[in-house]
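_Backbone structure tokens_
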Amino acid sequence: MLIEREAESCYLGQFIPLQYHHNMLMDANRMDNFKAAIQYRVFEGAKVLELGGGTGVLSWFAAQAAAKVYCVEFNPDMVAEARRLLSMNPGGERVEVIHADAFEYLPPEPVDFVICEMIHVAMLREKQVEVIENFKRRYQEKFPGQMPIFIPEAVVMAVQPLQQRYDFWGYQAPIIQFQLPGSFSTDTFELGQPALYKIIDFMETTDQLIRWEGQLVIEQSGRLSALRFITKNILAICHDNSTIDWLNHYMALPLARPFDVQAGDVIDVKFSYRAGASIDNLQNNIQISAARIEPIAVRGAAVTVT
């Protein structure tokens, strides 16, 4: 089991190269909102644990108020890099960078907050859900009583019908696309509103198998050629019930056989996948059925027609 998980982790990008961490540090949407959530949540003198610390920047945000931060990182190269970077920043001495597996590590004392940013769109590829569920079970055994607060606190996921253009200088290439939220492109046309398919509350027990069977209402006539997956991370819930959020890049999965739809059509969609699995695990398990439409498919998935 351990060998299987280690092999899968290598494929799923658990060892993210340093240059990609630079991209994350440059991502204002990610950085501004995590900083705001950590500053809002972490009080003076708190004890904090970060699982999967990378460059250590989120631990450093926490260290501005916390008395102690345990920053766990599995990649030995990133451990050395985080220690170097933290030594250059005021307050970095309050962060202890620990070379350990987040699936196995427990802090030597109870902590008030756990920061974990192993997040990919639709909770695929990275191990956020599995790591936190594993941690909660082991932490409760070692420190019975109150569970620390998680940052993020919850995740909201939705799916949306798209008319997506895949023409690249005359070359047809229907491939997965990651799209910046809030940006406009003439290649993307929203055929309907997103439908909520999953809410994860990290304080509650979460099943790693994510299933949804629901309907997408077509509001604009067009050609349904992709499903867009939307993931909003609720980093902190404030006292006035407002939230500090981080919206991931959208992920548009192409349909193997696009088809025409009319305003008012209802499309039945069914899928299941395991949190932390590859994108193929979702893509190959999508089923779509629609009245009065020829059989359709999503890249090798089983298909039905009502």
In short: Residues 2-117 form a domain with the Rossmann fold fold (CATH 3.40.50.150).
